[in-house]
Amino acid sequence: MKIIEPAQTGRGTAMARRDFLRHSIAIALPATFAGMAGPLFAATAVPNAAVSNYTLPSRQRGSTVRDVRDYGAAGDGANDDTAAFQAAIDSLPEAGGTITVPAGTYRIDAVIGVRLRSYMHLKLAADAKLAAKANSAERYNLLYVNKVRDVEISGGQIVGDRNGHTGTSGEWGHGIFVRGSSNVTIRDLHVSNCWGDGLVIAAADMWQAPPVGSKNVFVANIVSTNNRRQAISIGYVNDLKIYDSEFSNSNGATPQCGVDIEPENGNIAYKVLFENCVVRGNARYGMLLYKGSQGVTVSNCTVEDNGSCGVVTRNALATYIVNSTIRNNSATGLFIQEGTRNCQVSQNTFYGNYHRLGTVTRAPFSMSGWSSRIERDILMQGTMSDIRITTNFYR
């Protein structure tokens, strides 16, 4: 994918955003839009963009509980605990169960990785940390969720080997890789310093026919920060919901986005929701919705302080950006590119964008549609159709 720059609730009912999300560590407009079908600007209903109010999905698993310490895990930050984790997981009966990880720092050989199985919950204590051992590999997966179902991962920290990595090539060293799996929950954890991405949600058997996409994936209350390529990469998936999470400070290997939705091999990322999320401080785009993105909703999110555009759509279908704040990005706040179809932008607040060209002071105003007055905030370029920019707010 080529980077294109602009021309010069919890367990019961509601879950409030956690405090670590509030204080986390972190041009010329074309004269015509050739080939546009239907009205450029039109009012229409938008998705419900209320504050997050959800119930954690139920995942099927047995009642067996195992503690990784009982299988030899030291959690002392020195010993290699990879085999102990795998032994604990493999000891679960067919019905599955829960693996508990007490407080401590557990060194994991990410090149081998820890493979999760169906019908299990990997339950980390809040002060438990899985830390990748330094390696030179181009690719690794610290936690690998491959072609399984009914899996939950919660709590603690996952730390990659970025600061100690001994190789120079590759961009695929990931914290959590969900691949061709269904009914997966990832919540209440912090992922950082991976050689590639903090999280990947995509397909298994990608280059075979047919590939196995992931489906019914639920992410809530996570921070993914200071990873080298992306905070989260999203490939072939059906029904992904992400709430109350932060994707920040990606830097080091292109595309360097907070969120990259980029299914490969002609597949689709379908029905993806971001609600109450923060996307900030990434070296390039905050969010990239690329070819194969279909039915993506960005609701009540903040996209700010990114090193290029805040949000970019290209060859994306059925995109809804509503009730969000897009501000202080180095380039255009929202860049709608070639091939975008059925895109609605409503009830958002834009300001401070394209500050690489200097700041602009203006009185607050609202407007429906597009004019050169807002080209720092919203830019459209290329052939597209059914772009609906209704009332938004600017200052």
UniProtKB/TrEMBL annotation:
Residues 231-355 form the Right handed beta helix domain. PROSITE patterns: TAT. Signal peptide: none annotated. Residues 66-123 form the Rhamnogalacturonase A/B/Epimerase-like pectate lyase domain. This is Uncharacterized protein. It comes from Luteimonas gilva.
